Amino acid sequence: MRQPEQRADGAGPFTTRLAWHLPDGGSAVWESRLARRQGVLLVHPPGTAASRQTNADDVATARLRRLNAIASTAFIIGGALFMAGAAVGQFGTGDATTCASIYFAGGLFFTTGGYASLLQVINAPRHIPGGEARLVTHSWRWWSYEPTRLDWLSTFVLFTGTLVFGVNLVDSFLQGLSVRQVNRLIWTPDVVGCILFLISGHLALAEVCHGRPCLHRRSLGWWIVAINQLGSVLFMVSALAAYTRHTTESLINTNIANWGTLTGALCFSIGGLLQLYEHP
Prior knowledge:
- The protein has 280 residues and is of the alpha+beta class.
- It contains seven helices and seven strands.
- A hairpin with a 5-residue loop joins strand 2 and strand 3.
- The two termini are 34 Å apart.
């Protein structure tokens, strides 16, 4: 049997959008974010440019809604707690242990959101190759290894970044550290976590833009990714300003460190709030 003609788009070796002709003369379009977030595949009937949505089954729909609610709520709360920790540090309303405790609680929510986002990718409905315009749901999995998928790679790097931030947050409870120890145990994991967040955001932008620079002002997914990436940039600015200088034993710029964290966390809370509406 002759295979249906297909056209693939994506970033580098990754496929993020696939269009193919159907046996009845119509066409179908699969996009990775649309399928895994909303459980939707677009179908164009023969002889018309209009499209309709083919939705995943009830099991996949319920699964996507549940995971989306967990991930978005976790990022909203995690961002709010990071904002609170930065505010306490900036305005001096609590001691270092109080700040560390608030940040640690926020980090737990960020890790929860990161893992829930990874589970969304792992358990998202998949399209069927061979020209069928429908999505299928596989059995539940807690883990997978799919580095050839851009969405998996993006969420895996994000989740790894939250775990690295956890090292930074746990070490921040340590007392009596030298400047060298502070930079090695607290500052270095912070910077590494920020780098991983930036890489994850870049991959997510490549997914929604299919490997090309884009500005999709009417796309909710694009806004979520763009706002989160802005938050990652602000986190990196904060981390660089939080380096402790050996000569003065003080941060490069405490105000930039606190305000960078506060505004970056605000971006993640806004991204989480918008994500509440990106569901089946």
